[in-house]
Amino acid sequence: MSNKDVLLEVKDLEVSFHTYAGEVKSVRGVNFTVNKGEALAIVGESGCGKSVTAQTLMRLIPTPPGIIKNGEILFNGTTDITKISEKQMEKIRGSEMGMIFQDPMTSLNPTMTIGNQIAEGLIKHQNMSKKAARTRALEMLKMVGINNPESRLAQYPHELSGGMRQRIMIAIALACSPKLLIADEPTTALDVTIQAQIMELMKNLQEKTNAAIILITHDLGVVAEMAQRVIVMYAGEVVEQGNVEDIFYNPQHPYTWGLLRSVPRMDTEHGDELVPIPGTPPDLFAPPVGCPFAARCPYAMEVCLEKDPDHFTISSTQSAACWLLHPDAPKVENPVSAGGVKNV
Ligand SMILES: Nc1ncnc2c1ncn2[C@@H]1O[C@H](COP(=O)(O)OP(=O)(O)O)[C@@H](O)[C@H]1O
Ligand SMILES: [Mg+2]
């Protein structure tokens, strides 16, 4: 992969929140890259730092209490998101990156018409005339599958259904043709049929516009449908990353095994029993010194409690942070074989 294909490069990112109870270490040394036009999924249980990572990429974490403690976020090769001025960042947000959140009600402006909300960014960041922005807004509403777009332009968010509002969010995020779209659990608040429609829409639009997408989801079915690459996060760290095939058919980290067993999968026809991962993720006020998953890991060894594992390279596309991958570690049978998940 040559450098010109890389859109976003996240290096050693650490993000914390200073609260009355102490420092929450939400993101603890995260590395990954996103290539142009690629769909990357971020998966992991609730509270493991997915949203904070995504918000940091858009510089949307509140500072204070949040702080980017370390790392670089290189966008388009040279721009370091962690260092640029708020003014520059605003420009990037309005033109090169777009974000879709779980709950559109919190990000749509309740006092502004749909039409004005779509047009606002276009006028401000793309120097469009009011008239051109209105035409583009109409075009976007049609593109996201909204009927009677003309009459919708004059409506307010509360007049629309949840699914419709999410379509509006997508329209706003895509109106300026961003190079990167970040979608944080975009369909969690919607009912299942609407979820499928919105995902289908996002997939189509992503292919059409060739935007790269970072999709945060706990739905591994969606990952298999949408993404080419996956990063698995646990306790503020990336514990495994790979192509979608690597993660589904040859996962290496016991946490990934646990995730695959604990959620329904659309790509297996047989009804494997769902096994939740026992226990809970560690407290991010005082993360363990060793592997953060050790306390829940059926394979944990002494070293796992003492030292956070290195990232071991599995192939040119896959790596995982687990001491079982050390050449001297005992061999354990990978419980996830091609196409299916066996119980350990
Ligand atoms: N504004 C905030 N203030 C304090 N702690 C926060 C804040 N936002 C997130 N956190 C903490 O950061 C950790 C990671 O949260 P988050 O990224 O939202 O997890 P995920 O999206 O994976 O469910 C959690 O422990 C959460 O409580
Ligand atoms: Mg989240």
Annotate the secondary structure layout.
Layout: E1 6-19, E2 22-35, E3 39-43, H1 50-57, E4 66-75, E5 79-80, H2 86-95, E6 97-100, H3 104-107, H4 114-125, H5 130-143, H6 149-153, H7 162-175, E7 180-184, H8 192-209, E8 212-216, H9 220-226, E9 229-234, E10 237-243, H10 244-249, H11 254-262, H12 302-306, E11 312-313, E12 319-320, E13 336-337, E14 340-341
Parallel strand pairs: 3-8, 3-9, 6-7, 7-8
Antiparallel strand pairs: 1-2, 1-4, 4-5, 9-10, 10-12, 11-12, 13-14
Helix pairs in contact: 4-5, 4-7, 5-7, 7-8
Structure description:
The protein is of the alpha/beta class. It has 2 domains: 3-227, P-loop containing nucleotide triphosphate hydrolases (Rossmann fold, 3-Layer(aba) Sandwich); 256-341, no CATH class. It contains 12 helices and 14 strands. The protein has helices spanning 50-57, 86-95, 104-107, 114-125, 130-143, 149-153, 162-175, 192-209, 220-226, 244-249, 254-262, 302-306, and strands at 6-19, 22-35, 39-43, 66-75, 79-80, 97-100, 180-184, 212-216, 229-234, 237-243, 312-313, 319-320, 336-337, 340-341. An 8-stranded mixed β-sheet has the order 6-7-8-3-9-10-12-11, sandwiched between helices. The protein has a 4-stranded antiparallel β-sheet with strand order 2-1-4-5, with helices on one face. A two-stranded antiparallel ribbon has the order 13-14. Strand 1 and strand 2 (22-35) form a beta hairpin. The longest helix is centred in the middle third of the chain and has 18 residues, at 192-209. The radius of gyration is 21 Å and the shape is globular. The model is unreliable at 338-344 (pLDDT under 50). It binds adenosine-5'-diphosphate and magnesium ion. The site of adenosine-5'-diphosphate (ADP) has 15 residues, from strand 1, strand 2 and helix 1.
